[in-house]
């Protein structure tokens, strides 16, 4: 007895064909690591990746602590983020050279969360953002994220840089402000009020560190500048303190403490990230966070801002890496990897992480060519934390502030922003300035939301500018051997008929209603029609029908043709006809006009 036919076979064949035609829509977690291993991972590549990972780990070590402090949490949480999220994202992501961890872009979002909800709230918001990022990847939104225009990203990036720089003035000058307000203007006011209490010791250490950070790259050595600058500052503080007992500056060890077996220690703990429940971490009052539905509602906008900003920055970093190495990343797999990293890291005390352009570029320059280098970077951070924790506590706070001041300057990309404002269209300049001031004066949640909306509005406006109808009245058309007959007019409609452009394209058609016996609508350049476009088209057809004007659709593409058939726009004698070529449409118009006369 023959087995019954497999009714699902044609469907599976169509699905496989669609996957071959649209490979970018296929979700392939861990695609970067799997591709590297499939190509053959040699001993030479392993050696290069290990060396590059060691270099990046040295760079990431002080930066991770500085970014955690800037966000308002103890420095070890930045190290936990680099260790856990760095490994997970590298293993599951879609970019071969991406190095992920805490970045300066998140500071503006994280500071208000910590002030309102404590460390527990920050970890909870990071988990929510990780879930959203995984949703972005599963929904194949990797390509869509890249459509956010340059003025939006440049605007809020420059705004983030300004806010980060202002946040570092407290530690750079040793100021003691009266409070920690959330809003930028109030924060500046407290810093100005505290300015008379600036300490020259802190300023000298910060200035010395900043000078080394600026001058060291000119020596063109492979030793990372942050390692030299921070180590030199820490040694100098120890030496000067012994020579002059009254010389005191704040360090990680004097500013932060941790408790082990009931004993308080200064600095960072000499232990790896330990698993824990994120909402068991302290809230704003120091007690374990009390999670409620209202709290989740309050955290959702910030979590969404973290997810969007993380998606933008990670995919931008992946594009930069592709440009340097000539590779191609998988954006959807990268979003899934970023989401998984942000979902898992909070269970080990880590907070928001994303791809870091500076660390990714360092990885490439040091010879890293696969996710193994990024995994090695996390292992190096872990080893340094276990071996050097007491020494890390000697790093001056002013030196870390100097490091972040340099990060903020590089992040602002001021020459590029000035060029955009000078040469770009006025609408782009307005969007850039809007995102900049929203970031500075309000917060990143507002700026990201407004930026995404502005991006959508800009896209719709420009698509509407591309869409329109061109009237070709009675006479010769360049593509026709014979002239358009008297009593007929031709409209060439170009661009998608969507809700932002349909009314504009149909305006001239309404004006012509009743003036011609036949209207030919050439739709060969209309790839898609949405519901709003179809309503406008039906309205135009109803008016032309009342005026006894025949409409001939010429060269209708597949999507518009199917949509028109579903709504009932089909060939109707004396009213609607379809033609596959312009010549055929003109012949139908000539025959109709002859019968009418």
Q: Span between N and C termini?
A: 69 Å
Summing up helix and strand content along with how strands pair, one would put the structural category as alpha/beta
Uncertain runs: 18-24
Mean pLDDT: 87
Q: How many strand segments?
A: 9
If strands are numbered along the chain, what order do they take across the biggest sheet?
5-6-7-8-9
Overall number of domains: 2
Q: How many helices does DSSP assign?
A: 23
Radius of gyration: 31 Å
**Into which percentage range does the β-strand content fall?**
5-15%
Bin the helical content.
Answer: 55-70%
Shape: elongated
Tell me the major beta sheet: 5 strands, mixed
Keywords summarizing the entry:
Transcription Regulator spoIIAA, 2 domains, two-stranded antiparallel ribbon, 9 strands, alpha/beta, 597 residues
Q: Can you offer a commentary on this structure?
A:
- This protein is of the alpha/beta class.
- The radius of gyration is 31 Å and the shape is elongated.
- Helix 20 links the parallel strand 6 (488-494) and strand 7 (518-525).
- It has helices spanning 9-21, 31-39, 43-71, 76-92, 107-138, 142-145, 150-173, 184-194, 200-215, 225-243, 252-255, 293-325, 331-344, 357-365, 371-392, 397-412, 414-423, 426-441, 444-466, 502-512, 531-546, 558-566, 582-596, and strands at residues 100-101, 257-260, 263-266, 354-355, 468-472, 488-494, 518-525, 550-554, 576-579.
